[in-house]
């Protein structure tokens, strides 16, 4: 078993300033990257703070009381986020996911949702607007989020057993409160709701079946995510990854499953239906089965860095353009040029990297750019 190395580095300092190309790129909604992948999905991180300390994402030893979070002045304002999002939409984005950190910690988030809900795709349709949350504030906020124009939510929940869940969020947060948040979201019409469970072998894999039983027949889609080597602080080890194939086998042994087709191109989850027709589950195999070939996701950090891959070590800083007087056409062209140059496919390449390649690598944190 290899030793854990937890390097102390600040990923936020590594970036290149986005440049306006000499020839502006007119938006057609059909932008492709260097591997021909379209731009469809924009994930926007609205805060780098969180009230949980999940060990796989914001381990307490690093994200302690002395950790320097971004000052408020460096966060993009809602108007700035909407302006950037408008350019992304003109180049083909159809879906926006708000994330973080914990997005519901950002004050007045409903105002941003209202602004984004007013945008239209190049075909004139409303965007698909969703949000990923740890659920802790959902009970309080579900109704106002829906009223602002949010369509659905994804709630992260790593187990049903209260002691397992309290240990995984590492702030002793009770599972009952998240379950109440999910109920409130259902009552508010924020569906179809997805629940994401990160599976760590030896930590919460005994929660797979209780979770599958609990959400079967509720209309909620439970998705199991392989524990990923994102960031540089979680001390990731391959032996703590439980391959999705094993998740499916374990569930299938008790609750028979049949494989379903993908719901949309670029969809990260492999879908499985309960054989008795009582709903579906999904598995996201970011480690054991790469899905880079149709990855259509861009990520915008809280302070305006554009990341082209979850495993990127470098962002493209849009803020000098946003705050430096660039026109919308210039900002949109800079974004287009960055996407056109994109060739990231980390998960596909992971298998050919040395086994310790992800230990100590300079890489952006998940809590900074969101999932
Ligand atoms: N705080 C919100 C939440 O937890 O839903 C949103 C941000 S969180 C970074 C987004 C998603 O990333 C969550 O579903 C979380 O479980 C997942 N995540 C974080 N670190 C991960 C890791 N190392 N491997 C797999 N998933 C991870
Ligand atoms: Fe917070 Fe979400 Fe990361 Fe957990 S996964 S520490 S809830 S940002
Ligand atoms: Fe997309 Fe990067 Fe994940 Fe591949 S590794 S699917 S390119 S985010």
* Cα-to-Cα separation, first versus last residue: 28 Å
Q: List ligands, each type once.
A: S-adenosylmethionine, iron/sulfur cluster
Total number of helices: 11
Residues in β-strands, percent: 15-25%
Written as H for each helix and E for each strand, in order along the chain, the element string is: EEHEHEHEHHEHEHEEEEEEHHHH
Please give the order of strands in the largest beta sheet: 1-13-12-11-2-3-4-5-6-7-10-9-8
Determine Rg (CA atoms, Å). 20 Å
CATH class: Alpha Beta
CATH superfamily: Aldolase class I
Number of strands: 13
Range of helix content? 25-40%
CATH topology: TIM Barrel
Structural description of this entry:
The chain has helices spanning 78-90, 109-117, 138-148, 162-169, 175-188, 208-215, 244-254, 319-323, 328-340, 346-350, 366-369; strands at 15-17, 41-45, 95-99, 128-133, 152-156, 194-199, 221-226, 257-259, 270-274, 280-284, 297-300, 305-307, 315-317. The two termini are 28 Å apart. By secondary structure, it is of the alpha/beta class. Helix 1 (78-90) runs parallel beside helix 2 (109-117), helix 1 (78-90) packs across helix 9 (328-340) and helix 2 runs parallel beside helix 3. It has a single domain (16-369), classed as Alpha-Beta Barrel (TIM Barrel). A 13-stranded mixed sheet has the order 1-13-12-11-2-3-4-5-6-7-10-9-8. One iron/sulfur cluster is lined by residues 291-292, 295, 297, 309-311, 344-347.
